[in-house]
Input
Amino acid sequence: MTRPPLPREAERAARILPGPDWAGGRVEEGGDDHLVLIPGDPVPPAVLRIARRPEVGELLPARTELLARLAPHLPWVTPVPLGEVDPGEPWSCGSGVPVPDDAWSGPAVALSWVGGGPHAPHVGDPAALRRIVEAVAAVPVEAWTGRVAEPFTSTPHWDDASRAAVLAVLPAAERGAAQAVWSALEAFRAGEAGGDAVGLVHGDLAGHNMHWSPAGPGAEPRLLGIIDWDHAAAWDPAINLAHLALWHGVGVIAPAAPDTALATRASVWVGHLALFRLRRAAESGAVRRWDRLLRKTLPRLEHAAGASRSILAD
Output
């Protein structure tokens, strides 16, 4: 998923932001929406994000503006634009069709570098995670309203076909847990059980989007910055904690939540995310080891089912 930059990519990056060693860097290809060109400097001063599809390129200016507006309100480093979005060359393929990386030049922008790396999985200081949840919630509405997606934009709704696909791969004993989570989600959609809560949601607050300082002897990792706000939405703030729990473990939900209502909703959203992972796997048909995926997913689903049933009982 990493390769050397093509000469045209390095030359273009040098035109957009002269100075960094773009030719000696690398291109990260793992993202669906963007290529990321990282220069070869010992401490890279910037990265270049290049849209991979026309519709992503159209969103790049708004997403870049959002980064600039969020940065002053967050207590960690947030990538900020180091210039205007470069429009690139005309697209040669239709909307939704990736253009070969050696045959196009999509919209691109240079962003400041955010150091650090992902936290070790399955562990985490609940107090540190609570500060993250509270800091995102404290960003003033005027910084993001009208500049982020609506609820469910990046996650399709559940319909009969998608539910059936998941039930078909679940053990029979777990199907009731799935039904409980879906029922709680319907209550959220109806504005019940706190489902009408609206705040800034990052959209993927976990893993490689969270850049921590390395842990040292007697020192806990410290959050340095958060990247990739492309899927930010005006949605239930409990989703931020749910994403953190996917990486750090569902045991952090209760101690990291600002209140019990948010903890309960976060647990339900963990179930939604677990079921959605099974849905994508079932629909793609690309999973070779369902036992392995279920071992990871079922404990999250069972945790979520307990919270869902408590919501439905109220």
About this structure: The first strand starts at residue 2 and ends at 3.
